[in-house]
Amino acid sequence: MIPILALLTGLLIQSCSTPKTGESVSVTALPRIVVLTDINNVGGDPDDKQSMGHLLMYANQVEIRAIIPDYWKGKGVEATLEAIEAYEKDFGNPLFSFDPLNYPHPDSLRKRVAGNESKAIEIIIKEAKREDERPLYILVWGSMTSLQKVLFEAPEIANKLRVLTIATNLMADNPDSRQNTEVDRYCEKNNWNGRGRDEIFDDPRFNSLWWIENDWAYNGMFEGQEPSDFLLEIKNFGELGHYIWEVVQSHSWAHYFRAGDTPTLLYLLEEIDHDDPYSFTWGGTFSRPFPGKRPHYWIDDAGNEAWNYTDPCDSWDLAGQVYEYRVEGLRTHRPSMYDDFRNKMKQVYRSP
User: Fold this and answer.
1) Domain-located, residue 14
2) What residue numbers bound the domain in which 119 lies?
3) Do 84 and 126 meet the contact criterion of CB atoms below 8 Å apart?
4) Its pTM surpasses 0.70
5) What does the pLDDT look like over 208-246, one tens digit per residue?
6) In the chain, how many domains are there?
């Protein structure tokens, strides 16, 4: 006979696992998420819009509790609603499978979009304090200022959160292409991971914060011919697929599936143990550099023991090698992620 406690534990684990592509599942079994994004309509990188489109493609595999377009002066709310409008056109198309596959109604998504910073802070704190056995995943696709304000106002919620961030990429260029003096100067004058990040990282109250920081690995989304070919596939799937294609067309350098914020979502889509970031592959390869002081903090594995995680500038002569190692981690597993997305679109849009 199976002990009652073991049986209940097994059922709880099963109910909180991420469903397979296209699988219909109760919303209470889904990972619950809040997305903070710098999506906007005044410029910037169109990968923010592609990432939003990708999120909506998988909106039946996560429970979206809030979308916070916190580039308030950049018409972020309007940009988010445009993505939902594309989603709505597909949702209402009887030829597609949005409703049978338990996708959320477009109106429910609109209600989840925060209109200003004070409302955003209120939503996150309220959601974190809501009675729910599931952790609250915070997906940060831009500045960490809003999250910093949340944690400083309500530090007691930190243990309720699982934070996944896309860093600002201290140096996107291969440092071997720069003169050493320029590398040193660049490294010294820049914040490692962007606004709000250091205030959280340096505050001892948050040393135990569960946090995966995708620092350089996400650049694997951008490289090679495959992202360009894949974008042309996505284009043919409904209004939402067309939206993902269209938002980069005015940027000649971005005619591919960039979606640089997507690796935070991929953690919840990949069929892995979501209590174990070591098992994460779609977003890169991750390690725990400070197991004593920060037991729940993970960052891209550098692949080199000499890399100084505390002060990268101190080992900057290795930056080119470390960058390539980190990017290759995502790039290696990218075909598997593409296949899942491809199958997802075929099921939703009923393509043979």
Assistant:
1) no
2) 22-348
3) no
4) yes
5) 999 999 999 999 999 999 999 999 999 999 999 999 999
6) 1
